[in-house]
Each structure stands twice: as structure tokens, then as C-alpha cells.
């Protein structure tokens, strides 16, 4: 069943209060079912696991970042303890919406968290195509060093470069994580998933200091 999002606007005008009640039942929908399932490269095909197993978490994170420089991917890392919190919260609240700057305004991204992945697509595309909407940007978390190094490696892939720049994708990665890891921001994620009729998009804009647009 495709969510009825026709009453939502992808771009909001100043002071416009968006009510997201009609998006509530996307929690029962599959996202991007028309898109080829994610098949991330195994970590061992990217890193020489044997050679880095005795390196410090800082060294491994640095090697990870250096490898991805200029390769068209977004790289990052995080503490394993933070990842566990992200995973726990994402299991309970799998969906959210995040605006990203575009020119003099912003466009709204619809995200689904299916750990160890996060998928982003434009809300307008989701409104038009529903479960057939393909992700613009995907994030994969590699947990192989979680137990031994308290380290999780992160790789982002921009699927449609015409839709998102690398800089915008990196910002989305950091911002999405902040909404799940920051207690105050996570209240908005919970409201979106659990108390949909009380959710107001202007609160997300305010959290991101974008309310003056």
C-alpha cells in the first residue's frame, strides 16, 4: 500500500507548519522494494584485515578515510558504543524526514533505517513512486571491529549524483546520526514514528537552525 503523501510539500514556505499525519502508516510499508537490494562490498575486499588487526582504532579509521579519498564514496567512523545506541533506537523508530539545503531553499529527504543500512530518497519521489522510489544515497555500517576496537566503519554511496552532491551526502549522514544519537533530537524521531499526529516539520527546521528560510 502506498502512503498518501499528496498533501505534503517537499519545499516549505517560511512559517509554514507541516502536519505529517498522512505519513504515519509508512511504518508498515517496504521502502524501495523496486530497487536492487543492497549488496555492499565485504569489508575484507576493501581492507586487508590481517594487516590492520593490530593497529589502533585511530589508525584504522585514518586508513579507511585515506582509502576512500577521491573514490566517489563518503567515509566516516564511530565508536562501537554509539553504534549500539543508534542500532537500538533505529529498531524502534525506522523512519524520519530531513531537509537538505538546495540553492536558496531546501528539499526534504525521506529516510529509512534498516541497520546496518540507512537509505535516503527525496520525499517528492517517494510521494510519486511509493515503494518503487529508488534511494538517492545509502549508508553501510561495518561492525567487524566493534568488539575488538570499539570501532564501526561507515561508507556512504551516492546513487544519483544528479540528486545529491558528496558534500550534501556527508551532511545528511552526520545529521541523520545526530537525530538518533542526540537525546533532544531523538524526541522528534520518536514523535514522527510513534505520535505522528503531533509531529510538526517546523520543529525539525528549528533543530537545524533552518526555520528562517
Explain how this protein is built.
It is a single chain. With 213 residues, this protein is of the alpha+beta class. The protein contains eight helices and six strands; from the N terminus they run ααβαβββαβαβααα. Strands 1-6-5-4-3-2 form a six-stranded antiparallel beta sheet, with helices on both faces. It is globular. The N terminus is likely disordered.
Could you give a quick summary of the protein structure above?
The protein is α+β, with helices and mostly antiparallel strands and 213 residues long.
Average of the residue pLDDT scores: 81
Q: Helix segment count? A: 8
Which strands sit side by side, in order, in the main sheet? Answer: 1-6-5-4-3-2
SSE pattern, N- to C-terminal: HHEHEEEHEHEHHH
Q: Indicate the radius of gyration in whole angstroms.
A: 18 Å
Q: What percent of the residues sit in helical stretches (DSSP H or I)?
A: 25-40%
Strand content: 15-25%
In whole angstroms, the N-to-C terminal distance is: 34 Å
> Uncertain segments of ≥5 residues (pLDDT<50)?
1-37
Q: What is the number of E strands?
A: 6
Structural class: alpha+beta
Main pleated sheet: 6 strands, antiparallel
Principal-axis shape: globular
Amino acid at each position: 500500500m502506498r502512503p498518501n503523501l499528496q498533501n505534503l510539500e517537499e519545499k516549505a514556505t517560511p512559517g509554514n507548519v507541516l502536519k505529517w499525519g498522512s505519513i504515519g502508516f509508512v511504518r508498515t510499508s517496504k521502502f524501495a522494494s523496486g530497487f536492487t537490494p543492497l549488496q555492499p562490498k565485504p569489508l575484507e575486499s576493501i581492507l586487508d584485515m590481517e594487516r590492520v588487526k593490530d593497529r589502533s582504532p585511530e589508525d584504522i579509521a585514518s586508513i579507511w578515510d585515506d582509502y576512500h579519498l577521491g573514490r566517489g564514496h563518503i567515509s566516516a567512523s564511530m565508536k562501537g558504543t554509539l553504534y549500539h545506541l543508534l542500532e537500538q533506537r533505529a529498531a524502534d523508530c525506522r523512519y524520519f524526514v530531513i531537509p537538505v539545503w538546495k540553492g536558496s531553499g531546501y528539499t526534504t529527504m525521506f529516510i529509512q533505517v534498516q541497520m546496518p543500512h540507512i537509505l535516503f530518497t527525496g520525499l517528492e519521489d517517494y510521494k510519486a513512486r511509493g515503494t518503487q522510489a529508488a534511494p538517492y544515497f545509502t549508508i553501510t555500517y561495518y561492525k567487524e571491529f566493534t568488539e575488538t576496537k570499539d570501532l564501526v566503519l561507515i561508507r556512504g554511496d551516492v546513487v544519483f549524483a544528479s540528486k545529491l552532491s558528496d558534500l550534501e551526502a556527508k551532511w545528511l549522514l552526520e545529521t541523520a546520526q545526530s537525530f538518533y544519537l542526540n537525546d533532544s533530537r531523538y524526541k522528534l524521531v520518536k514523535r514522527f514514528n510513534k505520535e505522528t499526529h503531533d509531529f510538526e516539520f517546523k520543529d525539525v527546521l528549528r533543530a537545524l537552525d533552518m526555520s528562517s528560510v
